Description:
This protein is about 75% helix and about 0% strand. By secondary structure, the chain is mainly alpha-helical. The protein contains 6 helices and no strands. The chain has one domain.
Amino acid sequence: MAAGVVTGILAGLFGIGGGAVIVPVLYELFRMFQVPEEVRMQLCIGTSLAIILPTTVRSYRAHRARGLVIPEVLRLWTVPAILGVAIGSAAAAVAPASLFKIAFVAIAGVIAAKLLLGRENWVIGSELPGRWAMRGYGLRWAWPPR
């Protein structure tokens, strides 16, 4: 429960995904329950992904109620995100646990560097990219799992 509170606070304050906090916590929790090393990381990421669905629906409803949903982005990202999840799930079934560890550390490192070194003037663009770039971006956010 404490990890959930910390995850929520960090996600709210810094805008980081909860998986960046909860995956390491789950990893240690599963270690304490003697879950085999070969499947521990996959179980952590799978559990984190299972939590994403209800939180995404809740977030969508809250943003829609405030008029903050861009329908075009939603339309462009829906299919690529679903495809990305399917591809990622299939890959996760055969990928070794070490691959997940490396991916998690790399992603967490990039997020940490951005939080520590990022500046207000580091803006990639002021407008959304075109349709195909948006679709690719939707696919990219679905894999690797966070």
